[in-house]
Amino acid sequence: xxxxxxxxxxxxxxxxxxxxxxxxxxxxxxxxxxxxxxxxxxxxxxxxxxxxxxxxxxxxxxxxxxxxxxxxxxxxxxxxxxxxxxxxxxxxxxxxxxxxxxxxxxxxxxxxxxxxxxxxxxxxxxxxxxxxxxxxxx
Length: 138
Hints:
Elements: H1 4-17, H2 21-24, E1 28-35, E2 43-44, H3 46-59, E3 60-71, E4 75-86, E5 101-112, E6 118-125, H4 127-133
């Protein structure tokens, strides 16, 4: 089912993938949380989430293709295909990953408040495929 919340999430993702931070920031609630399998702990708070999102764009050039999006006014699920190339070694990875290309499946579940601000993003990514493509053992 297509809802206003789906439109908000789709606009947020488009802004994120294109580094339009002035559009990303207002979509997030002040107390938003991001749970990501590549992070040791959840990232909490709007500024901390913004810092994480910007960091993602320092190590990789990538594109997210929305394959499917659905939800109600409080939760939205997005099926994505993420592809790109590492341009700088992410923290904790060796320099040999620079230049490697990647492509993997991801599903993100968004929770929104009554004002359609994103309060939580839970990322379910195929981390095993990503790490294998980067030459890293899981």
